[in-house]
Amino acid sequence: MVLAMHMANELLSVPVAGVTLALGAALLVWVAWRARKTVDPEKLPLMGVMGAFVFAGQMINFTLPGMPGTSGHLGGGVLLAIVLGPSAGILVMAAILVVQCLLFQDGGLLALGCNIINMGVIPCLLGWGIYRLMLGPVEAAKPWRQYVAAWLACVVGVTGGAALVPVEAAVSGVLKISPVHFLGVMVGVHLVIGFVEGLITFAVVAYLRQVRPEALGLSVADPAGRRLSRPAVTATFLVTAALLAGVVSWFASSHPDGLEWSYMEHRYGDGANALSDPSETIVKVDALQAKWSLMPDYSRRSAALGDVPRDEEAVEEAGPVWPAVSGWGSLAGLVGTAVTLVVVYLIAAAVRRRQRLAA
Amino acid sequence: MGNILDITDLSVRYPDGTTGLDGVSLSVPAGGRVGLIGPNGAGKTSLMLGVMGALKFTGQVVVDGIALSRRTVDEVRSRCGMVFQNPDDQLFMPTLLDDVAFGPLNQGCTPEEAEARSREAITSVGLFGLEKKAAHHLSGGQKRNASLATILSMRVKLLLLDEPGAGLDFRSRRRLLEILATRGEAFLLAAHDLGLVRDVCTEVVLLDDGRVVTSGAVERVLDDPKLLAAHGLG
Amino acid sequence: MHHSHIDRYAHGDSSIHRLDPRAKFLAVIAYTGILISFDRYAVSALAPMAVLPLVLLWFGGIPTWFVVRRVLVLSPFILVLCLVSPYYDRVPHAVSFGPWRYEMTGGWLTAADIALKFALGIMTLTALMSTTPFAQLLEGMRKLGVPRMFVVQLGFLYRYLFLLIDEGLRLKRGRDFRGAARVPVGRRLRAVGAVIGHLFIHTLDRSDRIHTAMTARGYRGEWHGLSTLRFRRRDAVFLLVTAAYLVICRWGYLLLH
Questions:
Q1: pLDDT of the residue at A222
Q2: Which residues, numbered 1 to 20 in chain C, qualify as contacts with chain B under a Cβ-Cβ cut-off of 8 Å?
Q3: Strand-strand pairing, B203-208 and B211-217
Q4: What's the CA gap between C165 and A55, in Å, rounded?
Q5: How many degrees, rounded to 5, is the angle at CA A57 between CA B134 and CA A131?
Q6: Contact call for B106 and C219, based on CB within 8 A
Q7: Which domain holds residue B196?
Q8: Over the Cα atoms of chain C, what is R_g?
Q9: Which of A230, A319, B109, C77 is deepest in the core (most CB within 10 A)?
Q10: Is any Cβ of chain C less than 8 angstroms from the Cβ of B100?
Q11: Could you give the C-alpha distances from C175 to A236, A330, A336, C178, C180, in angstroms and in order?
Q12: In this model, does residue A341 exceed pLDDT 80?
């Protein structure tokens, strides 16, 4: 099973990367300030050790019965938020994401902002919000309620974060994909991932309740937590959830180019299609879709259902203006690069040999 | 007064109510080498943690003439240092040099001073060349010596060593012995390894169940098999 | 051991290893930014961008197979995304290359573009991480303005990462060896919860012990660090040359008009 999907650099445009990095950094600063209220400031650096725990925890996988080959594991964000509070949780997740990016090249350097938001801020905040809302006062919460709250928190938190990926990708405009399809896939896949992570979190919370219940009451055990009133919790959760839902649904429903693309670019009819469409499978799927889709343009069908529509909209996509380089220009560029590389390689090899001899 | 450490009637109670130490008194003379032996759970680690001011206690602890209290705890920690049983708890920085420099920097040294002291300490425990290594690159024996270096760089007068020989192979143990033998600091060495105690220490204190059973010269205590057997040793 | 590939080459010695981590880090950030700023159809324009990562890798003495393997191991997810493009983007583009001309859909161009950018990006990041010890990179980041508290957290994470992964592996193996797969779901889930929960408590306790060790060495909430980094002239030269190189790669085509 594909692991939690880290955002890659290559799907982002520079402005989106810049904005998300700035946003991520700002959120981290805010969260670090808030964390001083729930965690002893002297112990704050030790949160890094908890980050190491998450890595270890991720090695323990759990296979769903009846679905061989799929195994899920702990993402960590929601569990951390439940036991350490959302602020500390976000900090730890951010540290984890940075380490994953640098040491494991998992997730792009410029995509860190997105990743911190998608896999840190959203799961921790949303997850914790749901958990606390469902739970009520921690001391009085019945076990089953706590477990279900933890599970639900994961499902919503993980899926919520994943839903932002298509938004970020679409605004960047690099990957040509129908945003709604992308959204559908991401949400679908992550509902399952969240489900499994939720089960694991559920089990961990059950264990902790038995063995170290103070760990779960952590957010209430200190005075700052007790001062946290239900209205405040509800407000945080509702605002985050509303923002997220608003962004995603605006995006899905009223984003005009989203659906238009995939249809406007489908060139029905023989001529151009046959030339530009190497794959037979795609052609067949396409034809099927064209024949049977009820609202190809969300406006009308020009042909009756079952017939192949005529090529009505030969729309050339007005792409960004890239200085048109002639074929010779690009060949020159490539040859030049190759020559440079050969020279560089020879120099490097010579330098290394000299170093080895000198050593 | 020649004692670097004077413990009088020290009692420690754990959070769950059990008694860790009950009226323990012992002394370590300046430059002295005292072994602390006893079965598991006797309270050896608690005693050391108490001296370091890491546990609540009743009684009196005087280190280098300074009575341990909440006000004086920083000063006391500049005079004595504890080498933990598990080096992984004590080596927590990304590189060895950073770890060994942690203490001096907290003591107020400038970065240059701290670095100089650290390099000196690292060399004195035989780890020269490994300054830039991360702790997970070191072997068990090297980690143990590295732990020691983190305290030596603080120029303390009293070392509290908690099971320094545990888990070491013969060669590492011998190297540790050599290092300890040549140091000028006083130390209190808690160990199961009676051979180590015999080799390095001049006096021994036998602890059991939170109380001092007996103390005296190494030969007297360690050559009494009945005594040792009665307290789960030897 | 998991850390074999990460730290493996970072403690080597080469002209690249000796560069200040700040210079390398900034260069990689700038490179990545320029890399993703290329239009999604401008595949061949990416060619010169291959020079920087290869320079770093070759002069740094990092074996090619190691880097290739990193790229391959990490590619599945991005490949899936790449291969989606041809389905959605059917706009034909005329692609010319020297004397050859042919047609390709925008989707395939985008796919190639993303794949190529991905490979170059990974190569460059690997070059950075293989020629810079992580601790040194952290110090560089702190000097560049990353808040100290966060850098310290990263330090702790790094320090205990391998220890914890080993613990996690051991627990996983212990579970697997006891025939975990054949146990009914409920019990299996409970076992997973117990293992992870146990790890959590263990780590919590460990961080308490570390805190005790820290306070025993005089820690009072303030962090002091050694400063072992020196920004030298060659680091400035490296940055300037890289900047010029990036400008040429990205906007040099304008000159070709």
A1: 37
A2: 3, 7, 11
A3: antiparallel
A4: 6
A5: 130
A6: yes
A7: 3-86+156-230
A8: 24
A9: B109
A10: no
A11: 40, 57, 56, 5, 6
A12: yes
Q: Are C226 and B98 in contact (CB under 8 A)?
A: yes
| Angle ∠(A149,A87,A243) on CA atoms, nearest 5 | 70
Q: Are B66 and B72 in contact (CB under 8 A)?
A: yes
Mutate to test the interface with A, among C54, C187, C200, C215 (most CBs of A within 10 A): C200
Interface of C with A in 122-181 (CB under 8 A): 122, 125-126, 129, 134, 137, 147, 149-150, 152-161, 163-165, 167-169, 171-172, 175, 181
Rounded to two decimals, the ipTM of the complex is 0.92
- pLDDT tens-digit profile of A105-130? 888 999 999 999 999 999 999 999 88
For residue A174, give how far its alpha carbon lies from the nearest alpha carbon of chain C (Å): 6
Distance CA C24, CA C17 (A): 10
Residues of A in contact with C169 (CB under 8 A): 59
The pLDDT, as a whole number, for residue A63 is 74
User: How many structural domains comprise chain B?
Assistant: 1
Contact present, B206 and B214 (Cβ < 8 Å): yes
What's the DSSP call for residue A253?
Answer: I
List the structure tokens of C200.
């959590």
Does any domain span residue B75? yes
pLDDT score of A260: 40
Q: Which two tokens stand for residue C180?
A: 């975990």
pLDDT 10s digits, A13-31? 999 999 999 999 999 999 9
For residue B59, what are its two tokens?
């009684």
What's the pLDDT tens digit per position in A82-96? Answer: 888 899 999 999 999
Does residue B196 form part of some domain?
A: yes
* B206 in a structural domain: yes
Q: What is the CATH number of domain A9-256?
A: 1.10.1760.20
Gap between the Cα atoms of B218 and B37, Å rounded: 11
Tens-digit pLDDT string for chain C (257 aa): 345 566 788 888 889 999 999 999 999 999 999 999 998 788 888 889 999 999 999 999 999 899 999 899 888 888 888 887 788 777 777 777 767 777 777 778 888 888 999 999 999 999 999 999 999 999 999 999 898 889 999 999 999 998 998 888 888 888 777 765 667 777 888 888 888 999 999 999 999 999 999 999 989 888 888 888 899 999 999 999 999 999 999 988 777 65
* Residue B60, strand partner residues: B8
Whether residue B178 is contained in a domain is answered as: yes
**Best CA proximity match to C32, nearest among C46, C19, C17:** C46
Token pair 């949160």 is found at A47
Instruction: Give the model confidence (pLDDT) of A158-190 as tens digits.
Output: 999 999 999 998 888 887 788 888 888 888 888
Cβ–Cβ below 8 Å for B105 and C214: no
Please check whether residue A154 is in contact with residue A127, taking contact to mean a CB–CB distance below 8 angstroms: yes
Number of residues in chain C: 257
Name the 3-class secondary structure at B12: strand
Q: Where residue B72 sits, what CATH number does that domain have?
A: 3.40.50.300
